[in-house]
């Protein structure tokens, strides 16, 4: 019972941060790699295989939690929720987390042995699988959000600070899904433009 954990969405200006936890099956799916190195088609294929054959779960921290805790704290919370959602907590031997820090000692609910692995999404298959699940899940959330907020280009930039996103922020102001604690968004709450949405408070 080795669990791989990774997240998607630490850097965007809008949307939640999503973490995934995966226990690989045997034999493990072929072609696992850091989700950022895979094409969208290949990621979708691997997501289907992982979900069909392996044990997996997702944890989410929403925009309010990101703004209240900061993005690091929200990421640690999402990771904790993902592992807890596996519902096999007593059987987990170790949780391998992408990066240089883990939720151990940082989130009260975390109770598993954890090991941080820098670059783990490229070298540790269970973390690679988690990175794929997390990114695909979050991308779907942002594409769905784009239906309600079409100006910001979320179908392609997924909430990151791409030029089209920044232009839309300047023209239309932030939405409820924007992270107020992030500097490119915060300035619109301090000095809202005349054209800003009425959702600004």
End-to-end Cα distance: 47 Å
- Label the overall shape: globular
What integer is the average pLDDT?
Answer: 92
- Radius of gyration from the alpha-carbon trace, in angstroms: 17 Å
What's the helix count? 8
Determine the fraction of residues in helical runs and give it as a percent range. 40-55%
Specify the oligomeric state: single chain
Secondary-structure-derived class: alpha/beta
Query: In what range is the share of β-strand residues?
Result: 5-15%
Element order: H for helix, E for strand: EEHEHHEEHHHHH
Instruction: Flag low-confidence runs.
Output: 192-201
The major β-sheet equals:
5 strands, mixed
Give the tally of β-strands.
Answer: 5
Strand order in space, largest sheet: 3-2-1-4-5
Secondary-structure map with pairings?
Elements: E1 2-8, E2 17-23, H1 40-53, E3 55-61, H2 63-69, H3 71-84, E4 94-98, E5 114-117, H4 120-123, H5 125-148, H6 154-157, H7 163-172, H8 183-190
Parallel strand pairs: 1-4, 4-5
Antiparallel strand pairs: 1-2, 2-3
Task: Describe what you observe in this structure.
The protein is an alpha/beta fold. The chain is about 40% helix and about 15% strand. It is built from eight helices and five strands. It has a five-stranded mixed β-sheet with strand order 3-2-1-4-5. α1 packs across α5 and α2 (about 65-70) crosses α3. The protein is globular and about 50 Å long.
């Amino acid at each position: 019972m080795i669990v791989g954990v990774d997240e998607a969405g630490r850097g965007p200006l809008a949307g939640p941060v999503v973490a995934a936890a995966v226990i690989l099956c045997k034999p493990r799916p072929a072609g696992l790699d850091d989700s950022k190195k895979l094409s969208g088609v290949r990621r979708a294929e691997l997501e289907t295989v992982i979900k069909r054959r392996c044990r997996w779960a997702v944890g989410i921290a929403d925009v309010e939690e990101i703004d209240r805790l900061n993005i690091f704290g929200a990421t640690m919370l999402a990771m904790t929720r993902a592992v807890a959602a596996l519902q096999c907590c007593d059987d987990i031997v170790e949780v391998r987390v992408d990066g240089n820090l883990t939720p151990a000692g940082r989130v009260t609910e975390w109770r598993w042995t954890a090991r941080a692995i820098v670059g783990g999404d490229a070298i540790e298959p269970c973390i690679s699988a988690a990175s794929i699940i997390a990114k695909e899940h979050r991308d779907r959330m942002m594409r769905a959000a784009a239906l309600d907020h079409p100006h910001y280009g979320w179908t392609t930039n997924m909430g990151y600070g791409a030029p089209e996103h920044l232009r839309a922020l300047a023209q239309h102001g932030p939405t409820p899904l924007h992270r107020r604690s992030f500097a490119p968004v915060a300035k619109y709450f301090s000095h809202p433009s005349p054209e800003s949405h009425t959702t600004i408070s």
